[in-house]
Amino acid sequence: MIEIQPIRKPIDATIEVPGSKSYTNRALLVAALARGTSTVTGALFSDDTRYMCNALQKLGVEIHADEQQARFDIHGNGGDIPVSSAELYIGNSGTTSRSLTAYVSLGRGKFLIDGDAPMRHGRPIADLLDALTQIGVSARSQFGNGHLPVIIEANGLEGGKTRLDVSKSSQFLTALLLIAPYAKNDVEIQVVGEREMPYIDITLAVMAAFGVEVVSEGYRYFRIEEGQRYQPRIYHVEPDASNASYFFAAAALTGGRVTVQHLSLDSMQGDVQFVRILEEMGCQVTVSDSGITLIGPRQLKGVDADMRAISDTSLTLAAIAPFADSKVTLRNIEHTRWQETDRIHAMVTELRKLGVPVIEHQDGLEISPSSVTPAAIDTYEDHRMAMAFALVGLKANGIRINDPACVSKTFPNYFEVLEQLYV
Questions:
Q1: What pLDDT was estimated at residue 423?
Q2: Which class would CATH give 2-18+239-422?
Q3: In this model, does residue 237 exceed pLDDT 80?
């Protein structure tokens, strides 16, 4: 447990956040598929990227990791998987589990992928397994419940046409896209289900950077021609926009100023647009060559926000909502009920623990302005619950965060960086 101390004056800080998890894990997998040595710089070192790295090494990929330099050197096998069996443990990493489930289908043999309890019970994978089955992969949930562990009995990837429901996660589509160039035939993916696709833009950008083209029609249809191959290269990872949101919110809460270095509003990370919601709440945003600067107002305004495309930042908004001058509404985030935890219900539970009036909807919540009661916040093994609700403690007394170590999933030194706001 850690207790957050309130900040009694407007903050003034320049912050550097680690590299993007989304870019790092995609780059690791694509570099493993290329033939030859790639270097990934500015990379994130966290639980999620270590699970990806360790699993690829078990599958015969040579990777040298230098955490001090935030660098991975990956010697890719050109789409070959030299081992015929492996048991891969991915912790609580959704990106890793979905991507590896698709990746091992390129091999020949039997592969088992398993993870922590939230992955076994809360985070579905059935839609991806169904899509893989349609293109010739023997893919099944070991216990038949649509969750990990999964078993892939691989004999190379045939390719062809498949239909994929992305309503629960766009990670299913990312997984198929990343491996599709190594199928024996063209891969055509017909997408069904409603889902915003900022993370697919990241996937397509990483694929293009390593030399593979994808034909698409408005995120509803994708075709990847067989015979394309990723080319090894040096690839730099940009800062993580989701993790930057906490520091922008800290400036918003305290009426202070924060600059997050090396981050641009042109980023394909959808979560960078969280600053636009903060603008609606009264903040000022400026962009320069050095990064994005946000200055908070004397009093935050209420807002009605469609968070569908930037749902990872919905927890950040929920944490600062009680300090606004009127109701804050978060909409279109039903899919977050199948993430690290049921995030909507978790937000509602912890806000009520703080004495905050909140109404839960199937796809979101409404939060009314309120004073805050001291409380210990449960984090549900969810890194974003810990990081977001720590912000409450910047304004209110007696806020304690249970299991703060869960931030190691994507931002291991989060609380150390948060300390920089007190200087």
A1: 87
A2: alpha beta
A3: yes
Interacting residues of 373 by C-beta distance below 8 A, sequence separation 6+ = 353, 354, 355, 398
Share of the chain above pLDDT 90, in %: 95
Task: Name the pLDDT band for 133 (thresholds 50, 70, 90).
Answer: very high
312 is catalytic: yes
CA separation for the pair 117, 89 (Å, rounded): 12
3-state secondary structure (DSSP) of residue 189: strand
Query: E strand or H helix at 261, and its extent?
Result: strand 257-261
Q: Beta-strand (E) ranges in 128-185?
A: 138-141, 150-155, 160-165
pTM of the model: 0.94
Fold of the domain spanning 21-236: UDP-n-acetylglucosamine1-carboxyvinyl-transferase; Chain (3.65.10)
3-class DSSP state of 197: coil
The pair of structure tokens assigned to 42 is: 């500015």
- CA separation for the pair 406, 25 (Å, rounded): 19
Q: Amino acid letter at 291?
A: G
Q: Which of 240, 312, 378, 382 is flagged as catalytic?
A: 312
What are the φ/ψ torsions at residue 364 (nearest 5 degrees)? 170, -155
